[in-house]
Amino acid sequence: MSKILEKVVWIQLAEYLETNNILPEFQSGFRKGYSTTTALLDVSDNIIAAQDNGMCTILVLLDFSRAFDCIDLSLLLSKMVYYGFETDTVSWFRSFLTGRGQCVEIVQEDGRMRRSAYCTLKRGAPQGTILSPLLFVLYTTDIIGCIQNCKYHLYADDLQVYISFKASEWACAVRSLNEDLDRIQRWSQNNCLVLNPAKTKYIVFGSKYQLNSVPLDCQVKLGSESVERVYEARSLGVDLDPNLRYENYISGVVRSCFYRLKVLYKVRQYLNERLRIQLVESLVLSKLNYGDTVYGPCLYTKTGNLIQRVQNACARFCFSIPPRGHVTPFLNEHNILKIEYRRKLHLACLLFQVIKSQAPKYLFSKLKWSKGRCAERKQRFLQLSTQRHKSTAFRGSFRYAATRCWNNIPPPVKSAQTKLTFKNRLKCFLMEAQKGKYL
């Protein structure tokens, strides 16, 4: 019953926060239509656009230590009052959050359980509850007031702060960045949250020529502590490198996929074809699906071929194809899209949702529509306008990849009223393209 009640309250709380525009525009945690993927797309697109304009970007990945456990409950309730929650609502949350206790259980050598005395919790959102993540998002809403010089993106307790600059102006940019970081640290102290300088990292993005003009140590500081510069940083599950080519990240994912496939081969003889396909989709190819709309447009051809090798190996596992046998006929026979077309399908479905709901706003605002007659502008299947750019690196940006993807979709597919209909029509269209290309 508690989970059902929490879900009902969560729906009402989320609706209140959205209706009253309380959440920051660049907060992507636990919101309908938002995800880690949309957050990564926004940040990477801005970095690539800056690089196209001849600028480098410093991205700082801030780490909060035990963020959910450090919430000051009285301060959280005060913020709810500030944001206009009614007295009865605040009282309900006070009852829900306070008066909780915890203890420690230890299994002794003789197998008997020993339990400590209960200790009343004075801080922290309850672990494992449906409401806690959204309450943390509400708790940190006002942190954006500290970020005055830089851009930012939040996903729950993951905060990314970044600033773009001409390579010759790096010192001024770092000074502005440090000012924001200092304000963020003071806000954290005032709100009982703890930033961990040891786990906070920064990475510099740009072309090789641009990066050569930036010193190795940019003197990025969090309070009195220096922040470590890294050349590969994990952000929301994806490893970012200075050129945003994702080579090391893809290599790691591919190794993991082949290892999982190797394990599946041990039980292959006990599985029918249908089960093999299901296991491969859920345990192997699912690792390639995550973030593919982010890294897909940026890949070198050789990196893309490496990913296709994984699918080819999966097809041989599922359909008992000989080592030198062609994989494509089997994929076509079973209506399975190749990796390249799968990425197009995923990006197009995301685009359809963004265009239809106009959310997240930070992605929708990146799309520019081709000019046409007023009657045409109202139709969702209008073409997007390709934005001017100076370098080939810009083709890895969301705005370029999205425009190219959307404009290649035929109007009958775009005119679908639901995402499911759109996805089914587009998959049929892509399958026909794949089969035609093979023939």
From TrEMBL:
UniProt keyword list: Nucleotidyltransferase, RNA-directed DNA polymerase, Transferase
Gene Ontology MF terms in the entry: RNA-directed DNA polymerase activity
InterPro entries tied to this protein: DNA/RNA_pol_sf (IPR043502), RT_dom (IPR000477)
Residues annotated as domain Reverse transcriptase: 1-240
Keyword Oxidoreductase on entry: no
One Pfam family named in its UniProt record: RVT_1
Superkingdom of source: Eukaryota
Xref: PANTHER family: REVERSE TRANSCRIPTASE DOMAIN-CONTAINING PROTEIN (PTHR33332)
Name this polypeptide is given: Putative RNA-directed DNA polymerase from transposon BS
Species of provenance: Papilio xuthus (Asian swallowtail butterfly)
